[in-house]
Amino acid sequence: MSTAGRILVVEDSDTERRAITQILKSEGFSVFAAEDAEKALSYADEGIDLVISDVRLGEVSGMDLLTLWKRRQPATQMILLTGYSSVNAAVDAMKAGAYDYLTKPINPDELVLIVRRAIETLHKENEIDDLRRRLDQRFGLERIIGQSRPMKEVFARIQRAAPVDSTVLILGESGTGKELVAQALHHNSHRKKGPFVAVNIAAVPSTLVESELFGHVRGAFTGATDRRMGRFEQADGGTLFIDEVGDFELSLQAKLLRVLETLTLTPVGGHEDLKVNVRVVAATSRDLDDMVRKGTFREDLYYRLHVVSVLLPPLRQRTDDIPILVEHFLKEIAETKHTAKHRVSPEVMRAFVNFPWPGNVRELRNALESMMVLADGEVLTEADLPDKILNGSVSKSGQVDIPDMPLEVLERLAIMQSLEKSGNNRTHAAQRLQISVRTLQRKLKEYEAQNLIPASNDDILAEA
Ligand SMILES: Nc1ncnc2c1ncn2[C@@H]1O[C@H](COP(=O)(O)OP(=O)(O)OP(=O)(O)O)[C@@H](O)[C@H]1O
Fold first, then answer.
1. pLDDT reported for residue 131
2. How far, in Å, is the centroid of ligand 1 from the Cα of 48?
């Protein structure tokens, strides 16, 4: 028996209203009752899952109630009760968004059955909406972490470029997040319901790049026992992300240019042209300008790709993003890899900020993951740092060097450091910081509410 479900019964006849209410209550639903539309609408913000309303309600009809209610709460399910087995009223009700209708006199079994179904449908719809929302978040801009000025410029460019169908060229060193940007472009475009297909040219043997992209017909070459769809065809109606486009051999660059210009391709070994509807987003970590100068990358292809470009700066040029990336990864790694929750000591954060990160964000994430797996305590300290980072971290001016990062992050680091040095004694930490214990408590609460410090940090939040 389902107990979940809040139902509002709207019926002007006292006897019928009481009877329906009684049946549904005995089935375990939470039931509210109203004798007219005005009273019914006063429940609109009360988390009602289902409204059961008589079609005839006096001044405002059940149909009007349905329209007015849906305007405020479009997700609520509606069942209309009609005195006549009038198909017209039922059709109108369904058109206006009702889930179903019941004819009077009400059969209790039928009522319960339809109510259960309506509520189950609502729960399913909510789940789907939730999933969709989570997916949008997973692939949208939310996945790209960054607050630095260069990253703000990247976000603005993505937002401007996403809705237009132009080719986009993403430039940046390895591990700077080029694929994330390509996905965000796709998921913020009108193609988002179409496929997102990624191909990394550097990872495909040069003899197979052409068939990988354009497909091949049966018998095109030894081993081609079947027709194979290329990546362009797979991405039809969506976006094709070509990573490491700088690795294209010259002979193939001309073919790629032709496909980009005509959106027509010929599978390897085939004779018939194929039209595709694909938006191309390309990326490279190479210096294409230089390649054009040296004659290893076609100038015409370069300009064709470069209609809009997004430049992802290396992590060492946006060190103010490091603390929020660290916070993001600590949480993400704990959730996805089921490791214990950790935080980093201020010394480790300082080493991170001063390390040049040749592998950029990917390297930072990997370093954190291995530290989290190997560390003993809850706090990652200098002892947990890989040697490379410990030795390679270059302080610009000794101990007092203050890294470039938002003031609020610096403040948080200072507070966490004082707490650590005071053995988590808040009175002592507040004295060191020359602030009141209340201010310290307030700040810790704020950090906890924003998930900036783990909720399990009770030892820090406990009364000193
Ligand atoms: N700004 C960011 N916010 C969150 N995660 C990021 C960010 N930038 C990169 N990452 C993460 O770093 C890793 C590498 O990112 P991605 O594959 O997009 O980089 P890339 O530039 O395409 O690398 P490559 O050129 O080597 O293919 C991924 O795990 C990605 O989720």
1. 67
2. 43
Q: Which residues in 242-280 are b (16+ Cβ under 10 Å) and which e?
A: bbbbbbbeeebbebbbebbeebebbbbebeeebebebbb
* pLDDT at site 404: 66
Cα of 364 from ligand 1 centre, angstroms: 10
Pocket residue to mutate for ligand 1, from 180, 322, 364, most atoms within 8 A of Cβ: 180
- What residue spans in the chain does CATH classification 3.40.50.2300 cover? 6-135
Q: How far is CA 115 from the centre of its chain?
A: 34
Domain 317-461 has CATH 1.10.8.60: yes
The number of the ligand 1 atom at minimal distance from the alpha carbon of 243 is 27
What is the mean pLDDT for each group of 10 consecutive residues in the chain (464 residues)?
A: 76 94 94 93 92 85 84 86 69 76 89 93 78 59 87 90 93 95 93 92 88 88 79 94 94 93 92 93 94 94 93 91 92 88 89 90 96 89 89 52 71 84 81 84 86 56 38
Q: How far apart are the first and last CA of the chain?
A: 50
Local structure of 42: helix, strand or coil? coil
Ligand 1 centre distance from Cα of residue 363 (Å): 9
The one-letter amino acid code at 167 reads T
**Which residue ranges have their beta carbon within 6 Å of ligand 1?**
144-146, 172, 174-180, 243, 285, 361-362, 365
Round to whole Å and give the CA distance between 70 and 64.
10
Q: What is the ipTM of this complex?
A: 0.98
Q: What local confidence, expressed as pLDDT, does residue 359 receive?
A: 93
CATH architecture type of domain 6-135? 3-Layer(aba) Sandwich (3.40)
| Domain 143-313 CATH (choose: 3.30.2350.10, 3.40.50.300, 3.40.50.1820, 3.40.190.10) | 3.40.50.300
What is each CA distance from 139 to 190, 277, 282, in whole angstroms? 14, 22, 18
Q: Which atom of ligand 1 is nearest to the CA of 244?
A: 25
Q: Which of 144, 155, 169, 176 has most ligand 1 atoms within 8 Å of its beta carbon, as the pocket-test mutant?
A: 176
Asked whether 78 and 100 are in contact (CB, 8 A), the reply is no
pLDDT at site 398 = 40
Hey, is 392 helix, strand or coil?
Answer: helix
* pLDDT on residue 406: 75
Cα 281 to ligand 1 centre (Å): 16
pTM, 2 dp: 0.60
Take atom 7 of ligand 1 and give the residue whose Cα is closest.
Answer: 177
